[in-house]
Amino acid sequence: MPGSGFVDTVSSFGTWGGAYTSTTAQVANVYGAMPSMHTGWSLWVAVCLCAISTRWWQRVLAVSLPVVTVLVIMATGNHYALDAMAGALYLVVAFLLWLLVLAVRRALGHVDLPTIVPSASARALLTSAGRLL
Questions:
Q1: pLDDT beneath 50: ranges in the chain
Q2: Cβ-based neighbour number of residue 45 at 10 Å
Q3: Which residues form the Inositolphosphotransferase Aur1/Ipt1 domain (predicted)?
Q4: What is the dihedral angle through the alpha carbons of 49, 53, 56, 58, rounded to the nearest 10 degrees?
């Protein structure tokens, strides 16, 4: 969107690994930003952090991650709002497919996947960390 005030930060300031080097430029699709997995990943992290958080302010910080991510990717011109919405939708669809897989497994008589139980030392570490926070 020329003239809109957006700056291509990668072309202006560079990046780790050189996104526009001759090798990368041959395979990079700078217009293929749909869906924004910046949004999808940050939303997934927020969901996981909210699930394990014990304090309200931890959940506020977790929810702020995808909000800030969307603001940054749009402010830097890396994604449009539609890209961000598609990234969030991608996460929702993936989660629903996972629930479908679990339902089919149960219907076929398969046992649920094992639950991971932390060891005593991990529980002690998590408990002491929780007291600090």
A1: 132-133
A2: 14
A3: 2-97
A4: -50
